[in-house]
Amino acid sequence: MGMGDDGVAPRSGGSLGADVALLLEVAERIGTRVADGEHRQLDGAAHAGLAAELVRATGLGEAAAAELLRAAYLTGDLRSAGFFSVRGFVADGLGVSRGQAGRISGLGVGLERHPRLRDGVLAGRICADAARAAAQGIASAVADLRGPEREDARTKGEAIMLPVCEAGTVADVERVAAALVFHLDPESAARRALEALERRHVRVGRVGATAVVTMVLDALTAAQLVELLEARVDRWFRTGSLPEDLLPTGDEEEDERRRTVARPRLLADAFAEILTELVGSQSAGTRNGAPVSASVLVSADHHRDGAPGQLLLPGREPVTVAAETVERVLCDAEVTEVHVDGLVPDRSSLGQIARSDRRTRDAAAGVDPHDLTGQCSHVHCIARRYRTATRDQRTALAVRDRHCRFPGCRVGAERCEAHHVREWERGGATCLSNLVLVCSRHHHLLHEGRWRILADADLDPGHPDRWRFTPPDHGYVGVDGATVAERLRRGHPPEPQGGPPPRSVAA
Prior knowledge:
Elements: H1 16-35, H2 44-74, H3 77-80, H4 86-93, H5 98-113, H6 115-122, H7 128-141, H8 147-167, H9 170-178, H10 180-184, H11 186-198, E1 201-207, E2 210-216, H12 219-239, H13 252-280, E3 286-287, E4 290-291, E5 295-297, H14 300-303, E6 309-312, E7 319-321, H15 323-330, E8 334-344, H16 351-356, H17 358-363, E9 367-368, E10 371-386, H18 391-401, E11 417-420, E12 435-438, H19 440-447, E13 452-455, E14 467-470, H20 484-489
Helix pairs in contact: 2-5, 4-5, 5-6, 5-7, 7-8, 7-9, 12-13, 15-19
């Protein structure tokens, strides 16, 4: 390939290979100029315009690459090189991600099946993502058809999608593509709605200290769930019952950005709150004659020494939880005392009993926190104690505290939990002088985050400012290398409010 005086391959009369080489050379030159900061000499409009042209060029390059790779696959050249699919070659041969490889492979198949979409993409009238979304929508809509009927439906679907791809955004294309089945195969649309009910499932798995819940729902159930969660979150914004990092700042753009970033977390908070209300109301029914609830197993003796507890999951092995988590649960829980004799150090020795007697197996779920393989061998008796705040005490707390008392937090009293300043299992009483309202987030900080609450001896228990929240002197190291206390001091949550130093410790 000859080169011009300026070191660039000539445009006229060049082969496809020459043009590709020219494109690569130009791309490298653009990258060098941007790296040298040449773009900083341009104004903002020029930045945006050049970026738009590069995005368009990138789409054309991806479409051309998809065509070339599809041709290599159909001629058998990829197989001869040891690759049995376009995706495998792009991922393993070129070293890109599996996701990107799948996108290129899918685009090649879609352009091959739909020549009018192909012409539009290669001419620059349709972006590659729009063509890919249209091809995927058509493929999904005609999946249940066969033979000539499928081909006719593909042609009809391409005619429907072509003007949308040329004039609309990718989101517009995806929306129309999702409704194609109602035009191309209406009988299948009704059948798929029925099949969606059969495919519904929920899976719960553990990832470290968290649980991952995967749901596959039919469209109506999913819409109801989202509507329920969104309505709860919207109510928090209307009433101002929000964590301190989401309170309005006066900057509408910043407030909207913060709300968008926090939305997934808020939806999870709403889901947790609705579940808590449902379980607390006892309207969820019963399990083995008892109201549905989450159960934590802990040895009173060992818990005082800081040993962990066990979260009992129906039909699954218990999950070990930190002593601080146990303390948070015990702040507002119904306690059942189970007196036991002896420990069986090996789980297998309970196998025959557990398989033959469900009650014995459930009783044997107790675990000595200092020996996580140990099992209780005999249950003496069961007695109940109630240590939750009464309805009258909750009312008094709402009047006194009004909202979460953590500095800067304004989550409403109805969403807060009654925290025992001196832990109940360490002798703390369930009385107003030992209770304070905190939201779920800050309840976690008090236990797992090891914050402390100090009392100002000059203020009586009825004063809402009596409690002082103090961050830990040392704590767990986060992903950024900073301790919990350091991250909290940076503003989430803010430094405890100033004031006279506390004079006594109520813990």
